[in-house]
Amino acid sequence: MTNQATSGFPLMRQLVQPLFLSLLMLVLSACASERLQNPENFDLYNYLVQTDGISSRAAAAIPFLKEEAEKGSYEAQYKLGVYYYIGSGVTQNFKESFKWFKKAADQADETDMRPEFVVGVLYAKGQGTQQSMKDAFTWFRIASQSKDQEGESARQFLQWIKKEQASSK
To answer: What pLDDT, on a 0 to 100 scale, did the predictor assign at position 10?
Structure first.
């Protein structure tokens, strides 16, 4: 009888251990979500690919987008920023990307805060422009007014910047 009970224990451990590990991972990920996001570590490339996609005909669209962007279309300016950042249809160029995102952000309205959010990330990372947490803060504050995912991320980034500034004093 003791033999049978002892031999059953490893089976029980095999059943309970994966459940315990899954529960542990769930708790750890919940704790991680409580930590503030660092905008310098934000994966902008994957964000842009996931939200805007990569067109297989981007190269053909570039001349049209440039023409529309020069006329002031913020949608065309934003898309050019995406293409230059990703390197889709054009050679990857962070300075050119920043230029187009900034133009889009300067004129976009409150219905689409993506340009403002991206400009904040670019300032925080120092990609295409000089790194400036002060400027990143300004753009994240604007983007934080949005109720979508960009607004939530912008609010997280604002909290992180405030915490970093407070700890450096």
So the answer is: 53
